[in-house]
Specification:
Blueprint (H helix, E strand, L loop, with lengths): L29 H6 L11 E5 L5 H12 L5 H10 L6 E7 L5 E9 L2 E3 L2 E3 L1 E9 L8 H9 L9 E3 L4 H9 L3 H5 L1
Parallel strand pairs: 6-7
Antiparallel strand pairs: 1-2, 2-3, 3-6, 4-5
């Protein structure tokens, strides 16, 4: 099957169809997102919560692999984090000060989202992971507090496929209704 031609009724619609709206690829705002000041820092001196840089991506992949107990192909990560046509991944990491080890990560991958005819800043959330030896030790709350202090935190429409772990963490943080509807 040719992946460029979607199956079903859409495959037969000509591109010139006036009912078909083409979603423009927006400029990648990674540098702007990264440069904006945060209102909060880590509430625990043992950790730094920060936005991941491109040069952190390999260590982020390692953290996700360690957390889930399997190694994904680097090509899959690279597409999500580096080659996504909508921009670089916006990763939030918790780093241990003493070792500079990334203990927790979670990313938002830029993705087009529309509300009716209105384009929104959108993202697909994923790769929320914690190193096994640091799981259930409060790192999600520390990361969430800093992440929410970003000026864009409430201005991006995000979608995700929640799993049992993310549902538990989100419900505990009082966000269950925003995840589960």
């Amino acid at each position: 099957m040719d992946w460029r031609k979607p199956p079903g009724r859409y495959a037969s619609r000509p591109l010139e169809d006036p009912q078909v709206k083409v979603i423009a690829t927006p400029a990648d705002l990674f540098d702007e997102w990264h440069a904006l000041p945060l209102a909060k820092q880590s509430s625990d001196d043992r950790f730094v919560v920060r936005r991941g840089r491109v040069e952190d991506f390999e260590a982020i992949y390692d953290c996700v692999d360690e957390a889930f107990g399997r190694k994904r192909p680097r090509e899959a990560y690279d597409w999500l984090y580096r080659a996504n046509p909508f921009g670089f991944a916006r990763a939030w990491i918790v780093e241990e000060v003493a070792t500079s080890r990334i203990l927790k990560t979670g990313a938002f991958f830029p993705w087009p989202i529309w509300r009716g005819d209105e384009p929104l800043r959108g993202s697909l959330a994923g790769d929320a992971a914690t190193a096994p030896d640091w799981q259930r030790k409060g790192l999600s709350a520390i990361r969430r507090e800093v992440r929410r202090s970003h000026p864009w935190a409430r201005k991006i429409a995000s979608i995700a496929g929640p799993n049992d772990g993310s549902i538990t963490v989100s419900t505990k943080a009082g966000e269950g209704s925003s995840i589960l509807g």
